[in-house]
Request: fold
Amino acid sequence: MASPSFPFVYLASQSPRRQELLQQLGVRFELLLPRPDEDAEALEAELANEAPDAYVLRVCEAKALAAYARRVKGEHRPAPILVADTTVTLDGAIMGKPDDADHAVAMLEQLSGRDHEVLTALAVVDADGVLLAPVLSRSLVRFAAVERAALQRYAATGEPLGKAGAYGVQGRAAAFIERIDGSYSGIMGLPLFETAALLRVARVDF
Reply:
């Protein structure tokens, strides 16, 4: 007898970009967000001397297991859970999210005129609580040399806040990007090719 399929997936992410990308694939989803008593940010804390690849995969797996526990505790109906985590890395160092506009400008100045990597890890917990093998999308992004005044105007829009590396590829920062080698949707936060493949393994209908 064939295993049952699922008409939707839980998305454990507050990112509106990830929601838009799932809609682009035609995937039906329900949000499964952290409860007020959960310290979601603690899962993103870096370990000493942790490589960016290892960091983003570890954080993604931790978020996936936390989301499954949330699903069980909330007595939500069984269905697979999709989790993603994105980080920007420059010279092997992890660039997090800016604290404020000045911090965003400082981060963007580091990226100006240089190549950096965007890593997005994906994980799916199936309906039985089994964590499928996580996957990693790696993209190389080249920023043009950008004047500080332009970076300050960009930071003043508020767009860099809450974004790894202090920019969103789908927003005004597109004017700074000379070249991309990799997955545009992965840089946005949800690589569609890898996402589709994982959801098929998890037997999600779309």
About this structure: Helices lie at 16-25, 52-73, 101-111, 148-156, 184-188, 192-201. The first helix runs from residue 16 to 25.
